[in-house]
Amino acid sequence: xxxxxxxxxxxxxxxxxxxxxxxxxxxxxxxxxxxxxxxxxxxxxxxxxxxxxxxxxxxxxxxxxxxxxxxxxxxxxxxxxxxxxxxxxxxxxxxxxxxxxxxxxxxxxxxxxxxxxxxxxxxxxxxxxxxxxxxxxxxxxxxxxxxxxxxxxxxxxxxxxxxxxxxxxxxxxxxxxxxxxxxxxxxxxxxxxxxxxxx
Length: 199
Hints:
This protein is an all-alpha fold.
């Protein structure tokens, strides 16, 4: 296997990453506009990403023993598949929110907006990083994951206080926490890719 084949793998991984950016955008639109049609497109994308991840992982593992450059990317499709899986979880949560006409408080919407926007930035940076693989971009992804972890933990604590005060319904609470936890796992997988590719 030569560099051209490794380049093909990188191009395929980059393509998956770009699809995840689109998926994030569709789910965010569904959340903001209470429109499940955005979720249908997101679900199609996540299924395609997961299918491609499995195929690509198999091909990369076969190539890893022969090509040092391919070895660096062996775990990347799995991390991207995990990101897609977490988008599936968010999609189901948002679909439930829409179907059951559940309302988030203004504060919860603001917090989720912040996390969705930071996730978008992380995914955009991740796509660039997959091509450039520079330390500066890797550090940005690592620090961004830490920021999301801190913010989501703080938001969960504030949400718990709102729940105790009766400002939030328990059913909405479960959906809110699912979204927060899934966004944390998305950021964690992006960080893992960055750490593994700059070793």
